[in-house]
Amino acid sequence: MTVDPTRWSIATRLFALLVVFVVAVTLLATAWTIRSARDDADRSAARACLALATSIADNPYVVDALGTSDPSARLQPYAVALMSDTSTDFVTIMRPDRTRLTHPDPDEIGRPFVGTIAPALRGQSFTETYAGTLGPSVRAVVPIESDGEVVALVSAGVTVDTITQSVGERLPLVFAAAGATVLLGGVVSWLLSRYLRRVTWGRGPEELARMFSYYEGVLHSVREGLVLVDDRGRLTLYNDQAAELLDLPTGGIAAPVPLAELQLPSSLGELLASGRRASDEVHVTDDRVLVVNQELTEPTDGPPRPSPATGRGRVVPRGGAVPSGGAVPVTGAARPHSRRTLGTVTTLRDHTELTHLTGEVETMRTLSDALRSQTHEFSNRLHTIVSLIELGRGDEALRFVADELELGQRLVDRVVASIDEPTLAALLLGKAAQARERSIELRVDVEPDLGTIDVEPGDLVTILGNLVDNAFDAVAPTLDAAALDPTGRSARPPRVEVTVARVEGGVQFDVEDDGPGLDDVELAFRRGFSTKPAAPGGRGIGLALVRQAVGRVGGRLDVATGTDGTTFSVLLPDRRPDDVDTAARRRGGVRS
Fold it and tell me: What's the pTM value of the predicted model, to 2 decimals?
């Protein structure tokens, strides 16, 4: 079966590469060590032979023996004893004409010496490697002088086989060291490859590059904002949509950035820094309404390998089993403190347009409820008029009709005549009908000839509609308490007053109620704060949207509250400024 190295994982490739590298380096180091040991042995043998030959040449006994009639008889035993004592293979003393006087093999005595002697005849000592009668050897040749004249030569040497044998005695240690090096290198390579296999999920570089390209495409193609924060509270990655939603630098960041250094909305910054889990939380920024989900991630052993049948891997449902690998979201109420997390993954969905549409639908619902209520009331009044006519009381029927027309038409005439914006006029009339249905006294005071308000109709509906609805809800407990009064005495209906007047610099809206007041004004403008019961879709964003809209148009919002009620005052400028102070827009111009 043919193995395709291109399908190997990074860990396998690195392990194979390191093993080959360690073995190759070990072989080279072993060869160099053996060669170096051999060279050292040759040099050591040459130095020892030179020292021995020099000591022989300087010995007076040798000079005296050379003057006898049979030098070999005295010098041969001497040379044999030296060879035995110094572990030298041969000590040859010779005449200048190469005739041997001593030799390890007595048969060679009297025969010519095989080797170089010319430098010694000139009085120079030297060493060489030469193949003689005993084979290749490292030898030293030293002249023996008497009265300044070379009278003989001495050569001491060690055969190459002896040197090789001495070097071979050290080879087991060299090979043992080489084997230990290979073994240690293999273990280190295996540990490193095991670590890489864990962090790369056992995938090859081509597969990782392909996955990275896929993930990059997904990251920048999804229409939801995606933000990754590490376990040290630093922004590490975000996509193009997140950059647009949060006003982050386009093109990403080169290095992780602490969240404290980013100009994020306060509530969203707190969520990202907390690292807690969030599900469909609504956060209001300067100009957007975002639905945020946040999950924790934990490191695991790596994702399952894809198969042709299942594709990339498994999708783990909320509360289901955690896959065998990869960084996966941690679901549940809280993160276990014993588990290390990589950080959080946060998704952002822009619900700004949807919120505006919801507000418009809510306005239409208010108007439709008002029409339904008026239809019911007019039906009752019509029956009353018919009954009065049948009873022959026509004059009373006319007076009843005139009173009803005057009561309803008075508010319509005042609002329509003063406000050129039909959406705002319809909103106030609808709120008036809604107030009558809820038994709330709504007073509307609009300055005559108010003229045009230079604000988008959607922003007007958001600001005034939410403030009036908030006032209705604030006085609702008072209305319920009056309905449950055990004395049965009639109580004054709760009151909400809306004043629209032109002041210096713009148009001012005042919405006043006689409810119990607010304990914490700043808290009331935070996302999620509400005095009403929870409802599908969440509560507590009405006042946050008001502050957002006021800041968007460059207006100012003042709040006065006490035990006798609360007054919201909104100043909308005649002309929307081109450059509104960023900090003021973030606060929405709220004053209390």
Answer: 0.45
